[in-house]
Design a protein that fits this description.
60% of the residues lie in helices and 0% in strands. With 89 residues, it is an all-alpha fold. It has 2 domains: 1-33; 59-89.
Length: 89
């Protein structure tokens, strides 16, 4: 795989930013045009109200990084327990 040049990387980042803004605009437009459905809202509220699992104590970013490291082969799946800090670089 060819590594993009610095100029190509900058162009990709700019394109990514522009695309992100456009997708956000489309999403907001679609939501703005959607009819408000009380049944859907009530269903979502009931789901949240009936949750009886453990409280979420983190955003999940640490776990996501652990999954990425496993996928990249930098750590073995059994190397880290949930409470262990990430390995030094």
């Amino acid at each position: 795989m060819r590594i993009p040049t610095r100029a190509e990387q900058k162009a990709l980042v700019k394109l990514w930013e522009e695309t992100g803004r456009e997708l956000e605009r489309i999403r907001k437009e679609a939501l703005r045009g959607k009819e408000y459905d009380w049944e859907e809202v009530d269903a979502l509220l009931r789901m949240g109200d009936s949750y009886d699992g453990p409280p979420r104590l983190s955003s999940g970013l640490v776990e996501m990084q652990r999954v990425f490291m496993k996928a990249h082969g930098r750590i073995k799946p059994t190397t880290l327990a949930r409470s262990d800090p990430p390995p030094p670089r």
